[in-house]
Design goal:
The protein is mainly beta and about 140 residues long. The chain has no helices and ten strands. It has a five-stranded antiparallel sheet with strand order 1-7-6-5-4, with no helix packed on it. The chain has a five-stranded antiparallel sheet with strand order 3-2-8-9-10, with no helix packed on it.
Length: about 140
Amino acid sequence: MASPPCAHVSSFRQADLLLSDASFVYQTNDTLRIRLLENANVLVDRDFTALGRVHVSTNSIGKLVFAMHTLPDLATTNRISWFSYSSATGRLLLALSRLDLNQLSNSQAQVNVELTVGSRVYPTAVTFFGRNPGTYSTYSTSMP
């Protein structure tokens, strides 16, 4: 039996998120997870811990600086196209592709995004707009 076609977002990107956490810590193999939720409905739940890499350095005042990125993702759906974070600048880049969004309730949906790094969960939100059936564009809000 063939599965129904997936509603895909060709690229979901929040290019200029800022994440400030004075107690941020990350080591390779700490949890990395992204969840997309519409109300209590889980649309995407992707653990990408195995893809995470980090370079740790010390700045001029002796504070640890974390530069994170991911290895290429070979997943066929819910792919992490790009993830990087620099604790020095707070800049976080996230791109997801080939998302399976069949469970979205309508063509304009407010979607909560939960990024887990280690034991901390960082929330934000994005609005998905569907122009054509199965095709969505996004508008993002800031990460607290």
